[in-house]
Specification:
heterodimer, A: 349 residues, Rossmann fold, OB fold (Dihydrolipoamide Acetyltransferase, E2P), 2 domains, six-stranded antiparallel beta sheet, B: 291 residues, mainly alpha, 12 helices, 74% helix
Chain lengths: 349, 291
């Protein structure tokens, strides 16, 4: 099996650094998600791995082999495009075997691979159709089929599900994960959807403005965000970042006297996930409820503590009136402290 | 009342276009056909019905036969050449090369120039002895040649000019079509290792087919329709070596004043063009992929 190593990768357009000093390793047979908002350099990184754009500096190794300057076809990889890149004038079958014909794979071998892909993807009834006669989900399957028949050890996916509706997206996500595991592919998957990233990945690489903000497993990314950006990007609703100030005997929430921990508070932010906060009569931080939003399985409370606002997620419907006074509490490990300036996580004293 | 008005409204909206079409296209076409079955009236002698006589005499008219043959050569030579050239130029100016805007402009320039001006320019190119072409060939030791005055080369010389003039115009259509093709198709093919030629043959060319069909029909019509350069450069000569059908129609109608016979030839041109269009649609339309 084949892994990928990215070392000090840089891509500079005329006036703008699209990718800055990016380093990561994709272990063989695992799925790495490049996650980030649009313009963060995740798609550019993927295109550099594919060889569709040229590297400004840095090294790309696939299976231990330096492919930094190799043409795309010599990198042992398949790619699924956001637009699917299906040839509109060719039938489903011809689309799937297009690459095999280019590579002069013998006809019986072509047939074997086609049959296998068609079986995996359930495309049997559509082989003779043109892409325009297929639904979005079926077109997506054809694009996957093309990646499967290539039998390349590495598969790159550039936002493959962004053109599908929510239900289909969920189904295809599961299917992609199953195919990746079943075929033992090494996969790099680009998305801006945190749920896709969390549910698919063995490793998430969170990017922002061309650099890596954090690389971690989905669990780690959720439980131990390294920066305020990572903290806000993962989770719905996102993590609360509460401004702290110096108070009597330690750090306090701005505008209150509630002591959070010993030491300095000025210039720090306290991170709390809305779902990790408990609501009660007694607690660590007294608040006033300003708004209640009912979502079905849970409710979102907007609370005010001094100068700061805190979002809390509670299960089901709670008879909590707007304007009532409550107290919030949480486990010690639910509290994260970040430097306000740099955004980096700080050890809690 | 309301229902009557709704039934009339669409016809009223169509009326201006219908009047123009009828007055300047359908009525003249029918009149041309009718007058082709009569003798040309002269002086006091009224037009006499002669049926298909004009059509029969065409076959024994050596100038008509020569013009028909010339036009066939002209069309079969210029249409494929200008289409191939147009496609090539479009692919070049659609790629990421330096000076793209300048190239596009220079390829398109011949289209902007009036045919009369272009013909006069090429008249100088073809001038025997000191024309541009002879001067250039002279560098390699070729003797001067009277390109437009020699029956062997007169028609060919006009064809070169026509290809040069038409290709730039067709290039615009191909360029528009090429820009409709998603760049990710090229990238997907590059990942599989498809070379440029393979990609052009298997993907670009088939996706350009709707444009090719459109351009081809227009090119054939143009090859029968545009004769300005014949008038400027050769007047059909020498010895009718470069006479095209429409130029012959013009001569018959307005120099010999045999308008009835000219009408008959015009009807033949129309029938030929209609047949060509039907054949092209019939053969190619099944193979063309429309989005």
């Amino acid at each position: 099996m084949t892994g990928i190593e990215i070392v000090n990768l840089n891509k500079r357009w005329a006036t703008f650094d699209a990718v800055k000093d990016v380093n990561f390793t994709v272990e063989p047979g695992t799925l790495t998600v490049l996650l980030g908002p649009s313009g963060c350099g995740k798609s550019t990184t993927l295109r550099l791995i594919a060889g569709l754009d040229t590297v400004t500096s840095g090294t790309i190794r696939i299976g231990g082999r330096d492919v930094t300057d190799a043409p795309p076809a010599r990198r042992d990889l398949a790619m699924v495009f956001q637009s699917y890149a299906l040839f509109p004038h060719l039938s489903v079958e011809e689309n799937i075997v297009f690459g095999l014909k280019v590579r002069r794979v013998p006809a019986d071998e072509r047939r074997r691979r086609l049959n296998r892909a068609v079986e995996i993807l359930g495309l049997g009834p559509y082989l003779g159709r043109k892409p325009s006669q297929l639904s979005g989900g079926q077109q997506q399957r054809v694009a996957l089929g093309r990646a499967i028949v290539a039998e390349a050890p590495i598969c790159l996916m550039d936002e493959p599900l962004s053109n599908l509706d929510a239900q289909l997206r969920h189904d295809m996500r599961r299917e992609i994960r199953n195919i990746q595991r079943a075929l033992g592919m090494t996969m790099v998957y680009v998305t801006h959807d945190q749920i896709e990233a969390m549910s698919l990945a063995d490793q998430v690489i969170l990017m922002k403005a061309g650099h890596i903000e954090q690389k971690a497993t989905p669990e780690e990314l959720y439980l131990k965000p390294a920066t305020t950006f990572a903290a806000r990007f993962i989770g719905t609703p996102p993590m609360n970042l509460v401004g702290l100030a110096d108070g009597a005997g330690g750090a306090v929430v701005k505008g209150t006297a509630a002591r959070m921990f010993e030491g300095r508070g000025e210039g720090l932010l306290m991170g709390l996930r809305p779902e990790q906060i408990r609501v009660g009569e007694e607690g660590m931080l007294p608040v006033i409820v300003r708004n209640v939003e009912y979502h079905g399985a849970d409710s979102i409370l907007e609370c005010e503590a001094g100068e700061e606002n805190i979002t809390v997620r509670v299960d089901g419907v709670r008879p909590i009136a707007v304007g009532s006074r409550l107290s919030l509490s949480w486990e010690p490990e639910a509290m994260h402290v970040f430097d306000r300036e740099s955004g980096f996580v700080q050890p809690v004293r | 009342m309301y229902r009557i008005r709704t039934a009339v409204t669409p016809w009223l909206l169509l009326l201006p276009a219908a009047v123009l079409l009828a007055a300047f296209t359908h009525f003249p076409a029918v009149m041309t056909f009718i007058s082709s079955t009569f003798q040309t009236p002269r002086g006091k002698r009224p037009a006499k019905f002669v049926g298909m006589d004009h059509y029969a005499s065409m076959l024994s008219d050596p100038v008509f036969v020569a013009a028909l043959k010339n036009n066939a050569i002209y069309a079969l030579g210029t249409v494929p050449a200008s289409i191939a050239l147009a496609m090539l130029m479009a692919v070049i100016v659609n790629s990421a090369i330096k000076g793209k805007a300048l190239l596009r402009m220079s390829f398109f320039l011949p289209t902007v120039l009036p045919m009369i001006a272009v013909a006069n320019m090429w008249l100088f190119f073809y001038t025997p002895g000191y024309g541009l072409i002879d001067q250039f060939l002279g560098l390699f030791g070729f003797h001067g040649r009277n390109w437009l005055g020699d029956p062997e080369t007169a028609l060919g010389s006009l064809m070169v000019l026509a290809v040069w003039k038409e290709a730039g115009f067709f290039m615009i259509f191909y360029l528009a079509a090429l820009q409709q093709i998603s760049p990710s198709l090229g990238e997907a093919a590059a990942l599989e290792g498809a070379g440029r030629w393979y990609f052009f043959r298997r993907v670009t060319f088939p996706l350009l087919m709707p444009t090719t069909l459109f351009v081809m029909i227009n090119a054939f019509i143009n090859s029968f329709r545009l004769i300005d350069h014949v008038i400027v450069m050769t007047r059909g000569g020498p010895d009718n070596a470069s006479t095209l059908l429409l130029y012959y129609v013009y001569n018959v109608a307005f120099r010999y004043w045999d308008t009835a016979y000219a009408s008959a030839i015009t009807v033949v041109i129309l029938i030929v063009l209609a047949l060509l269009a039907f054949i092209q649609f019939g053969i190619l339309d099944r193979k063309v992929h429309y989005k």
